[in-house]
């Protein structure tokens, strides 16, 4: 199995810029420690002249790599030969126009789109990246793969491991920090599940150490191959818009892998002459896990030509440690204080004239209920995108006539606890799950009605409420 010799790994630091062969298993630059990109000798590769040329490949959907919603854009992530791709049919996701959500956000009713990544095989966008990481892992002969996770990466890793039967999955989760839907997946799919005391940030530090010590393949988004797969979310959005560029892409920010991958997608499409301009990018933090918001909006952290400002970031993390501050949000998927892709996200924000906002758990859950009532539904973290779009509209940053795409990163069923508590009319139950998060009310609650098992009473209730 060979990796493409026209692909290579490159340190993102312009001062270093060291390059490495794709055969190497790396999660940081061995020379300077910065993040790595996958880069290509585009001149030597066959890339379609215009994006609509990809449509001609749809006729070949019987080929696994043309069926996959990731690999049917293979020419834009050509690090491996098509016959060596590991795919389970990921990326069959939809861009849905959502009028009700448009009204909620405050844009024209035809202008709000939801990109529903919950439709992936493991129920989240992670499969877009996992297929790419697995393809690379297999090419390098790995037999064990690990990740730290708030739940979705682990579900995805566990699924790819059991379906492809080629890899032992080892997952690290913070104890009590993972929604039940996601934990159930890892357990059912047979992953070795290590619950460590602490949160995602603690688990991330440990998994890196363990992978280094034991030579295990790491599939977190510090792995540059994963982000190659996640670029395809943007390709599918453009495809659904008949290759038109929307005004805004709004995405939740946790470990900042998605925003980084989206930025890289647009940088490359622009470099290849396939788009004239990128959309604007909005990255939305939860208020209780708002490192990017703090550093970007209050401390002026920027990409700065690739220099970033590591001392500023380090000081911020030292202050968090001194205060024993931990990330806290109902959107457990993005309960992260030390986003590993911070610098790449800054690059994306720089290229896409981006903005960063934070939203409260109250705003997240209200937005989630609106998505549930007028879209496919989503888990709490995903709804941060819709809550963020609403906030940006209220601020006048997004105009009513703007075309806005919100990324719904995970399936509604991932976190039933939060959803059921939100819709509950039992105040005790509501407070147990949501009270400590500062959620005061369920503005769009749909209470279940309790009726005794009596035909007349049931019919009376239906006449009253239906
Ligand atoms: N939405 C969902 C549903 C997620 O699971 C995650 C991340 C994010 C948003 C944030 O995306 O990291 O690319 O900024 N979940 C990771 C996990 C951390 O372990 O499943 P990001």
How would you describe this structure to a colleague?
The protein is an alpha/beta fold and 466 residues long. Helix content is 39%, strand content 14%. The protein has helices spanning 64-67, 99-105, 126-139, 152-164, 180-188, 200-214, 224-230, 232-240, 257-271, 291-298, 310-322, 342-351, 361-374, 380-394, 416-423, 427-434, 455-465, and strands at residues 7-11, 19-20, 36-40, 94-97, 112-116, 144-149, 168-174, 192-196, 217-218, 248-252, 280-286, 355-359, 404-408. The protein has a six-stranded mixed β-sheet, with helices on both faces. α3 crosses α4 and α13 (361-374) crosses α14. The chain binds ligand F0G. Ligand F0G binds at residues 124, 126, 149-153, 252-258, 333-334, 379, 381-382, 409-410.
Key traits:
4-stranded parallel sheet; alpha/beta; Rossmann fold; single chain; globular; binds ligand F0G; 14% strand; 17 helices; 466 residues; 6-stranded mixed sheet
Low-confidence regions = none
Specify the CATH class of the domain at 94-122 and 227-418. Answer: Alpha Beta
Order of helices and strands: EEEHEHEHEHEHEHEHHEHEHHHEHHEHHH
Head-to-tail CA distance between termini: 61 Å
Give me the CATH architecture of the domain at 94-122 and 227-418, please: 3-Layer(aba) Sandwich
Class computed from helices, strands and strand pairing = alpha/beta
Biggest beta-sheet profile:
6 strands, mixed
Indicate the overall shape. globular
Ligand set: ligand F0G
């Amino acid at each position: 199995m060979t990796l493409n010799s026209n692909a290579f790994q490159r340190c993102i630091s312009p001062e270093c810029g060291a390059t490495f062969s794709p055969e190497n298993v790396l999660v940081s630059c061995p020379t300077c420690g910065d993040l790595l990109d996958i880069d290509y000798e585009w001149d030597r590769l066959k890339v379609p002249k215009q994006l609509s040329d990809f449509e001609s490949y749809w006729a070949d959907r019987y080929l696994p790599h043309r069926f996959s919603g990731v690999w049917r854009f293979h020419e834009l992530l050509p690090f491996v030969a098509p016959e060596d791709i590991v795919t389970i049919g990921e990326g069959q996701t939809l861009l849905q126009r959502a009028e009700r959500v448009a009204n909620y956000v405050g844009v024209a009713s035809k202008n709000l789109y939801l990109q529903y990544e919950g439709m992936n095989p493991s129920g989240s966008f992670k499969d877009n990246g996992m297929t790419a990481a697995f393809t690379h892992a297999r090419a390098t002969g790995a037999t064990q793969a690990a990740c730290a996770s708030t739940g979705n990466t682990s579900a995805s890793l566990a699924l790819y491991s059991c379906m492809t039967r080629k890899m032992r999955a080892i997952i690290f989760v913070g104890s009590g920090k993972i929604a039940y839907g996601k934990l159930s997946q890892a357990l059912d799919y047979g992953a070795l599940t290590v619950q460590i005391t602490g949160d995602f940030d603690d688990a991330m530090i440990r998994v890196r150490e363990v992978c280094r010590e034991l030579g295990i393949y790491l599939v977190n988004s510090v792995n540059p191959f994963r982000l190659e797969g996640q670029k395809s979310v943007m390709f599918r959005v453009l495809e659904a818009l008949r290759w038109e560029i929307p005004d805004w892409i709004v995405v939740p920010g946790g470990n900042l892998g998605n925003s980084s991958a989206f930025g890289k997608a647009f940088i490359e499409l622009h470099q290849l002459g396939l788009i004239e301009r990128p959309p604007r990018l909005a990255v939305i933090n939860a208020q209780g896990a708002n490192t990017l918001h703090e550093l970007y909006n209050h401390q002026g952290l920027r990409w700065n030509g690739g220099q970033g400002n590591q001392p500023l970031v380090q000081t911020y993390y030292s202050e968090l440690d001194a205060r024993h501050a931990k990330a806290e949000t109902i959107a457990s998927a993005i309960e992260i204080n030390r986003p590993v892709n911070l610098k790449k996200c800054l690059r994306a924000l720089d290229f896409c004239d981006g903005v960063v906002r934070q939203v409260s758990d109250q705003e997240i859950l209200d937005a989630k209920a609106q998505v549930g009532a007028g879209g496919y539904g989503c888990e709490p973290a995903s709804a941060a995108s819709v809550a963020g779009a609403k906030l940006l509209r209220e601020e006048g940053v997004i105009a009513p006539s703007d075309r806005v795409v919100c990324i719904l990163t995970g399936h509604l069923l991932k976190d039933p606890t939060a959803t059921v508590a939100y819709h509950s009319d039992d105040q005790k139950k509501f407070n147990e799950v949501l009270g400590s998060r500062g959620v005061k009310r369920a503005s769009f609650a749909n209470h279940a009605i309790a009726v005794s098992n009596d035909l007349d009473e049931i019919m009376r209730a239906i006449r009253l409420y239906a």
